[in-house]
Amino acid sequence: MSTSQATKEISILLVEDNPGDVRLTIEALKEGKVNNRLSVVSNGFEALEYLRRVGRYAGVTRPDLILLDLNLPKKNGREVLAEIKSDPALRRIPVVVLTTSEAEQDILKSYELNANCYISKPVDLDQFLRVVKSINDFWLTVARLPSDV
Q1: Torsion angles phi and psi, residue 116, rounded to 5
Q2: Can you tell me the distance from the alpha carbon of 6 to that of 125, in angstroms, rounded to the nearest whole number?
Q3: Which CATH class is domain 3-136?
Q4: What does the alpha-carbon distance between residue 69 and residue 119 come to, in Å, rounded to a whole number?
Q5: Fewer beta carbons below 10 Å: N end or C end of the chain?
Q6: Domain extent listing, the chain
């Protein structure tokens, strides 16, 4: 991890409509040793408003990393991913698809839409916590994130 990344607060946007998964993700990220700030939105429309900093999200900082569920209300995760990766102002932000789907077509489509990673959520609580911790360990400790995204 670079020195600037070690001291900088990492901003994460969690796009998740399941309150239980939100709580578990928060818990798992708290156990990490990386200074992070988590913002949560519960549907695809809100995610794009947040990322584009419009409306009630006008003053937010763009996230360094996005954790995106595919099965979202209003605008599904595939649509959100497509818009993120086609927008020059957003496309450099790494997007980790974190979803219950294990369908091959969802995996393929996500990578075709330039997802940086695809992870199926385990149903077991301990495994879910381990998965989120591994995301934290890799994306916030090992990987170098782009600055000024």
Answers
A1: -85, -20
A2: 29
A3: alpha beta
A4: 10
A5: N
A6: 3-136
Beta carbons of 115 and 95 less than 8 angstroms apart: yes
Contact between 46 and 14 under an 8 Å Cβ cutoff? The reply is: no
Are the CB atoms for 22 and 13 separated by under 8 Å?
A: no
* Contact predicate 116/88, CB 8 Å: no
Q: Give 118's DSSP letter.
A: E
Which residues have CB under 8 Å from 48's CB, separation 6+? 75, 80, 83, 84
Q: How confident is the model at residue 3 (pLDDT cuts 50, 70, 90)?
A: very low
Distance, CA of 90 to CA of 10 (rounded, Å): 16
CB 95 within 8 A of CB 81: yes
Summarize pLDDT for 15-63 with one digit per residue, the tens: 999 998 898 888 887 776 667 788 999 999 999 999 999 999 999 999 9
Neighbour tally for 89: CB within 10 Å? 12
Cβ-proximal residues to 44 (8 Å cutoff; 6+ apart), any chain: 15, 72, 73, 74, 75, 76, 77, 79, 80
